[in-house]
Design goal:
This protein has 95 residues and is of the alpha+beta class. It contains 3 helices and 4 strands, in the order βαββαβα. The chain has a single domain, classed as 2-Layer Sandwich (Alpha-Beta Plaits), CATH 3.30.70.920.
Length: 95
Amino acid sequence: MVTAIVFIKADVARIPEVAEQAAAIEGVSEVYSVTGGLDLIALVRVARHDDLATVIPEHVNRVPGVLSTETHIAFRAYSSHDLEAAFSLGEEDGV
């Protein structure tokens, strides 16, 4: 699994729409609205590095309202605690 963190600058009037459309793209696991110099951060998780070339420039960058992106590829995860907790939401203990 390859993980990329994509910083997105968007048209301020379209941030919610951009976030929803980006989140609907296959390979985009999460989109967060954030404070600071960025508008959104998307987490992209794909099977192969080559898949990033499809998901980011061909889909994320083409969402209407996206002004620019900056992509950071993750090398190694040092803690999976938060990720495991996120995927277990709604599951009952012992299931």
